[in-house]
Amino acid sequence: METLQHLILHDMPDSEDIEAVKSGAHTLTYAAYHKRINQLANALLQKGIQKGDRVALLCKNGHPASTIMFAALEIGAVVVPVSWQLKPYEMTGILKASEPKALFYGTEFKEIMDEVLPELSSVRLIMETGTAYETSPVFEALFAGPDHLPEAETVSPDDTALLMFTSGTTGNPKRCMITHGGIYNYVSKSNSSSARMKNLRFLACHPIYHTSALICIMLGTFAGTTFIFTKDQDPVRMLKVIEEEKIQTIMALPVFYTYLLEAWEEHQTDLSSLIILMTGGTKVPSSLIQRYLDIGIQLAHGYGSTEAWGISTWVPEMGMDKAASAGKPVADVQVKVENPETREELPQGEIGEIVVHSPFLFKGYEENPEATAKVLQNGWFRTGDSGYLDEDGFIFITGRYKDVIIYGGDNVYPDQVEEVIQQIPGILETAVVGIPDQLYGEKPKAFIVTNGTQEITEADVIAFCKERLSAYKIPEIEFVKELPKNNLGKVKKDVLRKQAVHS
Predict the structure, then answer these.
(1) What is the pLDDT of residues 196-244, one digit of tens each?
(2) In sequence order, which residues have a C-beta less than 8 Å from that of residue 79 and are 6 or more positions away?
(3) How confident is the model at residue 489 (pLDDT cuts 50, 70, 90)?
(4) Is 21 in a helix, a strand, or coil?
(5) Which phi and psi angles does 277 have, rounded to 5°?
(6) What span, in angstroms and rounded, lies between the C-alpha atoms of 201 and 199?
(7) Contact 180, 5 (CB under 8 A)
(8) Which end of the chain is more exposed for a tag (fewer CB within 10 A), N or C?
């Protein structure tokens, strides 16, 4: 069966000699790791968790998080990775929407969970796992049972494996359904990436709720990669881990590598073990790639999305003249550029919407057929990104047609920020747009119109947002008399973007 479940059951390495995961002082070989995955899978079945049930995961990077994920997938449950950057207000909304039957959370999130859990009626199994490095006794008790392969119901390629949130609004979040077949296809067809990761020592510092982190974990696990998990990304500490653990590869956002290089220039630690670094999630400056090449380290980058997983990659051997591109499509992925209005395919060099056909595509947004129909048409995914293909087949991204703001790899959805700001008494309307930011690529800015009945300051709005939104979603504030609109009354966000840039 061509499913992720089949890969976990039958194709995961089972070696006593290869280290699989390391968190702090705890190291598991692939044999021990697979044993714990089976033990937890059997425990989940015993607790009544079955195929199709949702298992929410709110844990920092560490072997508990990856063990829970693979155990749930092994029995056909749907894993719901939850961002630990979310405020209780946001977390309540997405957990209500996903209706988890089981929820695993790290000890550091107990205070948040005390606030969120009373709002959740679907949860039957609640488990505090301990920290990323030291598990709790109650969590460890789940591993006391049998370690044989679980007798779980078989999933089909079209069954959902991961439920990823591509929006964070509490009213109607978009739940992106990633299938067992899609992930199986990605793992089985990504031969070059898998070969590159075989037996490598991988620094897993990128948050496990990010698609790019999950891609690396999926590819690397079945290639026999050793994952050294870290629960933060402090650059000086990361340099020490790289040196001590002989790290060979990393996946992180461009901003991580900017700070890492600054720290290295001061501390001059040993980076000789590094073979290749990987990045993406937002535009990667060519100057950053060159700075790493200057010290003998390759920095590759990829282009993709939650809905499409990997679309394209660029590696240094493709040439620095193409470093500003998003690379070439990966195996079995077709990319074309269309006029966003007429859907006519455009010739090389002409800018239009990037459209993708891939065996890795998601199957849609759960319970949101309208949103699904807008982006999935005849087997092609409309990315919402504008760009073009050059004469050599490289993809160049020039902007976005959709409003999503990418802050250092994290998606900020204007409608969510607008929804929060609109709750402030005295605010008539607001529009949030992305503005350029030298370090993070983009950041949100809110244009606000008040009704004039009371004094509202920038500090008032920011304080209100801070209670309800993650730090990276807090916008710059500008009060205006009115918002520019078209004849249908729709806010002209392109005008606001230009206004923000010029100001």
Answers:
(1) 778 899 999 999 999 999 999 999 999 999 999 998 899 999 999 999 9
(2) 54, 55, 57, 68, 69, 72, 73, 161, 162, 163
(3) low
(4) strand
(5) -110, 150
(6) 7
(7) yes
(8) C
Helix (H) or strand (E) holding 218: helix 211-223
Per the CB < 8 A criterion, the answer to whether 238 and 204 are in contact is no
Question: Quick check: 434 and 418 in contact, CB under 8 A?
Answer: no
Q: Where are the beta strands (DSSP E) in 451-489?
A: 476-479
CA angle 415, 421, 422 (to 5 degrees): 85
- Please report the pLDDT score of residue 172 as a whole number: 52
The CA distance from 296 to 274, in Å, is 9
Cα gap 38→58, rounded to integer Å? 21
107: tokens are 């000890």
Q: Give first-to-last CA distance, the chain, whole Å.
A: 57
Q: Which residues contact 388 (CB under 8 A, 6 or more apart)?
A: 337, 346, 348, 349, 350, 351, 352, 395, 396, 398
Global pTM reads 0.87
Residues 499, 497: Cα–Cα separation, whole Å: 5
Distance CA(469)–CA(224), nearest Å, equals 38
**Residue length of the chain:** 503
Q: Is 461 helix (H, G, I), strand (E, B) or coil?
A: helix
Structure-token pair, residue 205: 């510092």
Which residues, in sequence order, are bridge partners of residue 429? 449
At residue 175's C-alpha, the angle toward residues 170 and 181, to 5°, is 170
* Angle value at C-alpha 493, between 488 and 499, nearest 5 degrees: 125
Contact indicator for 403, 442 with CB cutoff of 8 Å: no
pLDDT at 171: 38
